[in-house]
Amino acid sequence: MKLLNTIKHPHEIHQFTNEELIQLAHECRQRIIEVTSKTGGHLASSLGATEITVALFKVFDFRTDRIVWDVGHQAYSHKLLTGRNERFDTLTQKDGVKKFLSPDESPFDHFGAGHASTSISAALGMVVGRDLHQKSNHVVAVIGDGALTGGLAFEALNHNGYLDKNMIVILSDNGMSIDPNVGALSKVITRVTSSKSYNRLRDETWELAGKVPFSESIRHGLHKINASLKTFLTPGMLFEGLGWRYFGPVDGHSIPDLLEILTHVRDLKGPIVIHALTQKGKGYSFAENDAFKYHGVTPFLPESGEFLKKSPASSDEKSYSKVFGQKLDEVMEKDPEVVAISPAMLSGSGIFHLLKKFPDRVFDVGIAEGHSVTFAAGMATSGLKPFVAIYSTFLQRAIDHVIHDVAIQRLPVRFMIDRAGLVGPDGPTHQGVYDLTYLRMIQGLTILAPKNGAELKLMVDFAHRYETGPIAVRYPRGNTNELDEQSVPPIELGKAHVLQDGSDIAIFAIGVMVNTAEEVASLLEERGYSVAVINARFVKPLDTKVIQHYGMTAKLVVTMEENTIHGGFGSGVLEELSCQGLRPLTEVLGVPDRFISQAKPDQQREDCGLSVTLAMASILKKWAMLPKIQQKPTNAQQPLEASA
């Protein structure tokens, strides 16, 4: 029987031998490959952190100790060891095991982890809580070297360098250039600096040096010797300079080495950093050779690593990200002032190919969303034309920078907001359903959303030409096969596109909901209703003339958006109607006031009432609230019931 299947409670791992721990790590790795090959999920990062996870559960007792994983991409072994092995086949599915960590899924998920660079801050908060409650449990944060590009991680490192609280940070490093320190000498240094005898001698020497004449000079000399030695032998002076004790590098895939260093440092006083060298995709050759490709995976064949093909699509169908990337390529080719910036999302945003073509004009700033925005603002002041390619969920982290560094100065920074709306199995941490709300409130910021790829191309051109202030174009995850720019009318500032006229119901839709609005309108027309469909195109500024017209002529005004209903596009339309003194019956359709769980996008739209069937039902239910004399549809040949 597999060891993994025998574990009922994580503390049972304390009794495992080193050989059993090695076997357990292998079984975790195989289980992760087995499940993600069927369901998709995060593969390479979790494979790279498997031995670290097993070693932590051997040394610590997480019934009382605390562990904080950064992001959660790397925590699938943690899920397997904490009671979710049997249900792990439901990963990414509706009501199944979540892709990220969530305290409502398991008491061992001590902190939710969806965005990067948060672990050290959260862990330090737990440490302060522990000390104020006079407890003695250990707190461990596990962070990847990529997440250290985020400023929040350094803010927390700096803070505890001052507080000097007892906590451990494990840096899982699969990218830093530290090859000279790997080998026998590195192991010797790590063993010596983490041993109890060394640390006792270090503390006693430090204490003795403080009691003799010229103690400050002696202590200063000892500190310089120690620092010089570590600078020469290890890459840890960054952490030492921030007030953390540095140990490593250690082989992050060696259970014995990890157990040795964790056991030695577990009860040391003060801030501790353990530098563990790891390899993304460890144990699965295809992921080892291409960690990016196998970071977030769709179903694949484990034997060959080949991804299963999705249902056939038309030859001209492309993702919105790719449409944007190809259009930006054209713009950059024509205009040398155009630059592109992305916070660690060049590939996901469809512009990685531009890095090779325009190496001096394309910038990956790492997981530093705030910096990406202010960096772009600085570029704009020098006459450049910056495009910031960023996911909706990540732009949230830079809202202060958008307001203070861009909008107040009226700088023409172009925000290309990918993954806007409902994004499927990534769940609440990654839903792009807030951007219309948090951007609408910012004075002087223009906001657009295309209904298809053709409009996205036109909007990229419009954003390129727009110099009045900041501008944002938001578009969804997914594909589009409508790419002909000649098939849609030109983009004019603040002008909507009326797709069809009608006198009973006016449906104002934005972005991908335009197609849904057209389908709903078609079904309503079959029932005799006269339905107008308006592709708003602009969320800010709104087309006030079109809103006024249908506010006066339609019996029911409906708005549709893949954004939270509070403060979004629909709210803007209602505000405009109110300002004009118009009081038509209204229905705002969008994401309800709750977090949307992981599921397939169609399931999420159904959950939000944004499917064609449910949207029509909501419209007819609201229609039934009209006075009886107004309820007969304009084109009805016979009495119709206002119900779905």
What characteristics describe this protein?
644 residues, alpha/beta, Rossmann fold, 3 domains, 7-stranded mixed sheet, 25 helices, 21 strands, 15% strand, globular, disordered C terminus
Short description:
The chain has 644 residues and is α/β, with parallel strands linked by helices. The longest helix has 22 residues, at 18-39. It is globular, with a radius of gyration of 28 Å.
Describe what this molecule looks like in 3D:
- The protein has 644 residues and is α/β, with parallel strands linked by helices.
- It folds into 3 domains: 243 residues, Rossmann fold, CATH 3.40.50; 169 residues, 3-Layer(aba) Sandwich (Rossmann fold), CATH 3.40.50; 132 residues, 3-Layer(aba) Sandwich (Rossmann fold).
- It contains 25 helices and 21 strands.
- The protein has a 7-stranded mixed beta sheet, sandwiched between helices. Strands 2-3-4-6-5 form a 5-stranded parallel beta sheet, sandwiched between helices.
- It is globular.
- The two termini are 54 Å apart.
Strand runs, count: 21
Beta-strand percent range: 15-25%
Look at the structure and name the CATH superfamily of the largest domain. Thiamin diphosphate (ThDP)-binding fold, Pyr/PP domains
The neighbouring-strand order within the major sheet is: 10-9-11-12-14-13-19
CATH topology of the largest domain: Rossmann fold
Major sheet description? 7 strands, mixed
Rg computed from alpha carbons, rounded to a whole number of angstroms:
28 Å
- Report the CATH architecture of the largest domain: 3-Layer(aba) Sandwich
Shape assignment = globular
Helix tally?
A: 25
Q: For the record, what CATH class of the largest domain applies?
A: Alpha Beta
Instruction: Give average pLDDT, whole number.
Output: 89
Which ranges are low-confidence, i.e. pLDDT below 50, for 5 or more consecutive residues? 176-186, 638-644
How many discrete structural domains? 3
End-to-end separation: 54 Å
Instruction: State the helicity in percent bands.
Output: 40-55%
Q: How does the helix and strand content classify structurally?
A: alpha/beta
